[in-house]
Design brief:
The chain is α/β, with parallel strands linked by helices. The protein is built from 10 helices and 10 strands. Strand 9 and strand 10 form a beta hairpin. Helix 3 runs parallel beside helix 5, helix 4 packs across helix 5 and helix 5 packs parallel to helix 6. Bound molecules: adenosine-5'-triphosphate.
């Protein structure tokens, strides 16, 4: 959890960060500050390094250069310190990650069981509150296979906020959802951010669904940040890279086949 002394630091700060994977540089020269309380959309084409950026925030990936800070503290490398930091970061992964042989309530209780010594009755109450927060009060006894895609995503979200983390990271939270379920999830992300006083970072290529709830947008392409600013500045940008990305055009300054080339290598 953040120290009182770090109250002025941004929720996340990257300074001169380089991230390598499989012996290849994925992102370089990354400077980014995410203000506390904001919702930041990290946009970019497939394979541009959005998930890689999140991996650096959770300490899963150690930067090859530069510094990554969360609430004013450098992301530690020592396992024990890293586990402590991770309690303050809620992550909603692309595939929900729900355990299929546990009910929704049991899934949400998992982080509470793993990281607290709270009595069973208190955990049950907290689980109820989290289900309520995502609008699924009566779904606790359902198994993941009994949930629609949108409901499963909401249960995963309830589990991600189980420990009341001040920082939420969303990796493609809208993938596989129909427009109605997408709307429910984006509203929930925004509402939870405001109501619980969180900071949220949403990695996505669903630009038009995500920008309405974002305070800030960051676009990464060709291994670097090509835009950082407000959603309206993004829409108004005449940077060729940004325009190509927003319009989804295959030809232009963004090398869209980067990921494919890497997989073949
Ligand atoms: N564990 C890994 N080892 C080696 N290379 C990796 C690893 N994970 C990702 N990469 C490569 O790093 C690059 C960036 O991947 P990343 O998943 O961060 O992109 P992304 O922008 O999140 O893509 P998507 O939108 O498709 O999820 C890709 O070229 C990918 O092949």
């Amino acid at each position: 959890m953040p120290d009182a002394a770090d109250n002025d630091a941004p929720a996340v700060r990257l300074t001169g960060v380089r991230l390598d994977r499989g012996g290849r540089t994925i992102l370089d020269g990354i400077d980014l500050a995410v203000p506390r309380g904001s919702v930041t959309a990290v946009l970019g084409p497939s394979g541009s390094g959005k998930s890689t950026l999140l991996a650096a925030l959770t300490g899963e990936l150690v930067p090859a250069a530069g510094r990554v800070e969360v609430f004013g503290q450098a992301v530690p490398q020592r396992t024990r310190d890293l586990l402590e930091l991770r309690k303050s970061i809620g992550v909603l992964l692309q595939g929900n990650g729900l355990l299929t042989d546990l009910t929704s309530a049991e899934n949400i209780a998992l982080p509470l069981r793993a990281h607290t010594r709270l009595p069973r009755a208190v955990i049950d109450r907290l689980v109820e509150m989290k289900l309520h927060a995502v609008g699924l009060r009566s779904a606790g006894e359902l198994y993941p296979r009994e949930l629609s895609g949108g409901m499963a995503r909401r249960v995963a979200l309830a589990r991600a906020i189980a420990l009341d983390p001040p920082l939420m990271l969303y990796d493609e939270p809208l993938t596989g959802l129909d427009p109605i379920a997408s709307g429910v999830i984006t509203n929930l992300i925004s509402e939870l951010n405001d109501r619980l006083g969180l900071t949220s970072i949403i990695v996505t290529h669903h630009v038009h669904e995500t920008l309405p709830i974002a305070d800030r947008a960051v676009v990464i392409a060709n291994g670097r940040i090509v835009f950082a600013g407000s959603p309206s500045e993004l829409e108004a940008s005449d940077d060729p890279l940004v325009r190509q990305f927003l319009r989804g055009e295959p030809d232009g300054p963004i090398a869209f086949d980067t990921a494919r080339r890497t997989e073949a290598a």
